Amino acid sequence: MSHKNFETEAVRTQLERSQFQEHTTPMYITSSFVFEDAEDMRASFSEEKERNIYSRFSNPNTTEFVEKVVKMEGAEDGYAFATGMAAIYSTFAALLSSGDHIVSARSVFGSTHTLFTKYFPKWGIETSYFDINKPEEIEQFIQPNSKILYAESPTNPGVDIIDLELLGTIAKKHNLLLIIDNCFATPYIQQPIKFGADLVVHSATKLMDGQGRVLGGVVVGSSDLVREIYLFSRNTGPAMSPFNAWILSKSLETLAVRVDKHCENALKIAEFLENHPKVNTVKYPFLKSHPQYEIAKKQMKLGGNIIAIDIKGGIEAGRKFLNAIKMCSLSANLGDTRTIVTHPASTTHSKLTSEEQLSAGIFPGLVRISVGLEHVNDVIQDLNQALNN
Ligand SMILES: *Cc1c(COP(=O)(O)O)cnc(C)c1O
């Protein structure tokens, strides 16, 4: 396999052309594939032949999408899912047994946290949480039955950074599988496998699609582990639809240029907000004021598109800020062409007690901004008028 540059692999990784010599990969909207004869069918089912059988197992469009992500992350193999959560759930379910233990960062995506706390204990799988800002404490949570070390970086919604190289070292020393949710960075910015991750999971719904259209998920990593996840998924059915795979494969062709622009806009907006009198603090990985700035610079090519700010005046100020926004969207998604603002304390996390909110890194005035691709001056103008209101 040739190793071209990231952008070239993203654009030029493509299925073999059909007899029609199409330039762009067509959609293979088919649930199954036909066999020549009984022998062809036998050999296909016994995996003597590598070919498509049924779209729950594989489909040309999902194969193309997965192949791109595999190359981008520097992985060996992968499998695509209907959503990011399907990827995360299936990865854990395929690799863990009753009695196993997970060591996870406390600040992980909400539904991932729910999996760990509400569902996995039903099947005898327990999780211990470490504070992402106290990586020196991770080893004290490792038990003889620990199997997986799990984290996201940057985190949601606090935009904290954890040293992936350190996680790789700890995982290796204790014989744990290191699994990283790389959704916020994308493989264009950060490749966790370089730092020792065994598997990388993504919600393709976010920056990979980048246009707020389809849901998707993917896991990539070593062939042996992906094989386990594939066999589990082939039988349990969380597969990505070929339609979504076609969309997402096209989206990846523009990932690099989109993410470049997202990050350029985000840095300008973060710098603007840092000097705004109504803002206490701004957290953005590529601002020198970020507590893990040095680590961010070491492991990330750019700072990403998510900014966390603490507005003066706490929960009431946060609510007023949302109501004063004119152009930006109030929405649950992120990584879209459109800038999205959220105020977790009064919305997504309002049911938590204030102690629970704080332990998840959510202070009352926290506003998360997912910077989009509008002209940066128009976004700044909207945020500025809403802050001053
Ligand atoms: C959105 C998200 C997920 C879940 O992905 P879905 O596609 O919504 O299922 C997982 N991890 C992170 C970090 C996310 O932002």
Automatic annotation (TrEMBL):
Enzyme superclass (EC): transferase
Entry GO terms, CC: cytoplasm
GO molecular function, one term: transferase activity, transferring alkyl or aryl (other than methyl) groups
Cofactor requirement: pyridoxal 5'-phosphate
Keyword Transferase set for record: yes
Entry superkingdom: Bacteria
Enzyme Commission code: 2.5.1.-
GO biological process: 'de novo' L-methionine biosynthetic process; homocysteine biosynthetic process; transsulfuration
Keywords, alphabetical: Amino-acid biosynthesis, Methionine biosynthesis, Pyridoxal phosphate, Transferase
UniProt keyword Nucleotide-binding, yes or no: no
Pathway participation: Amino-acid biosynthesis; L-methionine biosynthesis via de novo pathway; L-homocysteine from O-succinyl-L-homoserine: step 1/1
Reactions this protein catalyses: O-succinyl-L-homoserine + hydrogen sulfide = L-homocysteine + succinate
Modified residues (N6-(pyridoxal phosphate)lysine): 206
Family matches, as HAMAP family: MetZ (MF_02056)
Subunit structure: Homotetramer.
Function in brief: Catalyzes the formation of L-homocysteine from O-succinyl-L-homoserine (OSHS) and hydrogen sulfide.
Family to which this protein belongs: Belongs to the trans-sulfuration enzymes family. MetZ subfamily.
UniProt name for this protein: O-succinylhomoserine sulfhydrylase
Organism: Lutibacter maritimus
